[in-house]
Design a protein that fits this description.
Length: about 170
């Protein structure tokens, strides 16, 4: 600090010196790689819509089968190989097997025979085994609808009523 006296006035001058000292040490670096993995699993979902129709055993279906369509839809992971099978139904007839299902509709006491087919000509029975399922479905990641062709043979009789059956559709992938 310096003191100056001039005309009876004391002037004090001080100088402040700021010093910036860098105290940073030289930092090193290291790296590592990180591998991230996502596995897409084979997945399929399945939905069905059954058929509804009327059957006239007196006139229309006395000599002609009643036909209808139902549908099954699958959405599967790309690359899956889905196979859709249909079981024998809740009211399968005696002698029915997964490969040769003998399906029946029932009103609780009376039965009407019917079949489910993979072709519109009603000649290829859609069964409950891979061998009796339609050709493999192409898995695109989008819903794939498939038509099921139903036929109720002619000349069956029963009381006026509602006849139903429950068939389980399974997708194996």
């Amino acid at each position: 600090m310096k003191r100056f006296v001039r005309n009876g006035i004391l002037i004090i001058a001080s100088a402040t010196v700021y010093s910036t000292v860098s105290n940073t040490a030289s930092a090193g670096t290291a790296t590592a790689t990180m591998t991230n993995t996502v596995t897409i699993a084979n997945v399929c979902v399945i939905s069905t819509t059954g058929f509804t129709t009327t059957y006239d055993p007196i006139v229309a279906n006395l000599s002609t089968a009643q036909t209808a369509t139902a549908s099954v839809s699958t959405t599967c992971t790309i690359g899956a190989n889905p196979v859709i099978t249909l079981d024998q139904g809740a009211h399968a007839n005696t002698g029915s097997t997964a490969a040769v299902p003998l399906r029946r509709l029932s009103n609780g006491t009376v039965f009407l025979n019917y079949g489910l087919f993979s072709d519109s000509g009603h000649t290829v029975t859609w069964g409950g085994t891979p061998a009796t399922a339609p050709t493999a479905v192409t898995a695109t990641g989008l819903a794939t609808p498939i038509t099921i062709y139903a036929s109720i043979p002619a000349a069956q009789s029963g009381p006026a009523s509602t006849y139903t059956d429950t068939v389980i559709a399974t997708v194996t992938f």
